[in-house]
Amino acid sequence: MRFTEPWLCDGKKRLCRLCRYASSEFLKPLKARGIKISMDSKGRALDNIFVERLWRSVKYEEVYISEYRTAKEAFSSLKKYFVFYNNCRFHQALNYKTPAEVHYQRT
């Protein structure tokens, strides 16, 4: 999906830092496109615990130990990591199965 509102992106396809993410001006075009809006409240770390744990794994198992020279190299390396994470990495919380095994109910 491409955002065309100039205040919504800065030409580098990143969200503008000047936007007030909870403002109606920001939320209206997202809602119009059917984008589900999710914002955690302050002090609600457990609201998104599974995604927070995923990002911890990504950072400590891939990002912090890698020395990317370009954005393209980072993208390629992260893409490979997510294939590994979903198809090869066993998860204790999933009874030592991979996310793909659980998702597709493979054993």
From TrEMBL:
GO terms for biological process: DNA integration. InterPro entries: Integrase_cat-core, RNaseH-like_sf, RNaseH_sf, Transposase_IS3/IS150/IS904. Residues 1-107 form the Integrase catalytic domain. GO terms for molecular function: nucleic acid binding. It comes from the Bacteria. This is Integrase catalytic domain-containing protein. It comes from uncultured Desulfobacterium sp. The lineage of its organism: Bacteria, Pseudomonadati, Thermodesulfobacteriota, Desulfobacteria, Desulfobacterales.
